[in-house]
């Protein structure tokens, strides 16, 4: 915990936002800011980007970039570019300013001074207890309790289903509860935050006769991002919910994939791991054994290289050189003439 707090203090001291020039008249924005501010910033951009009508010609990413410009200029709306007279968007700009909404899932003990119980920041992940307390210090904290339509543990007498179970959209309490316990998209290896996901009925809801279809209760609802929500309804995957809130997905090839159970609360529901057995060797003995193993490996490697070198030497052939025979010198008779001849 102390090391985590120190790293947190150093990271907080290194926060920054920079703007640098790019090609083609564009610029890049790079920064490092506290996670809760980043989530609030991301949520405000998403809110403005989704405020235009369906006839807007820009992509979602383009609208997010334009929303940043609107915020910088002091505007509270992102004007739709459809230029239609019947555009339903309110362009008056009179939007009630409110504090940004940041979802932090904590236990009661986390908010107590001195606690080291971590928390979960939506869209970011696990944060330290001290970080969570700093966020909650100046926030309007809303306590979330298990809603009645979350289907508590079965009792001896059957509990009647609430009236909200026959309504297509879940209530606010159930909606919040499901996103808290999910944490993110329930599709394997997807980390889209739960508050950016759709709540989908595992057993399809019957709009004609709700009593005959899937109920709007916690055990029949799962959080899926928009892409995986569409993939689930494409008919290429079969979804089977399990009693522990995990989901088994079966592909067309018959391969099964099981999601994590209970999302953020899975770690609180799993039994503690069994205690390990007696150590066979001490740390010093492990270190000595590792050194011996490395030396043995090194000897084998040297022997292998020596054998390869000897084999190359054996296969090499050198040309045989024979000494040259001395050539007889021819004596020239210059007579009695004195030099030079």
Automatic annotation (TrEMBL):
<feature type="compositionally biased region" description="Basic residues">
    <location>
        <begin position="294"/>
        <end position="316"/>
    </location>
</feature>
<dbReference type="InterPro" id="IPR003870">
    <property type="entry name" value="DUF222"/>
</dbReference>
<dbReference type="InterPro" id="IPR003615">
    <property type="entry name" value="HNH_nuc"/>
</dbReference>
<feature type="region of interest" description="Disordered">
    <location>
        <begin position="145"/>
        <end position="164"/>
    </location>
</feature>
<feature type="region of interest" description="Disordered">
    <location>
        <begin position="292"/>
        <end position="341"/>
    </location>
</feature>
<dbReference type="Pfam" id="PF02720">
    <property type="entry name" value="DUF222"/>
</dbReference>
<protein>
    <submittedName>
        <fullName>Uncharacterized protein DUF222</fullName>
    </submittedName>
</protein>
<feature type="domain" description="DUF222">
    <location>
        <begin position="1"/>
        <end position="161"/>
    </location>
</feature>
<feature type="region of interest" description="Disordered">
    <location>
        <begin position="264"/>
        <end position="283"/>
    </location>
</feature>
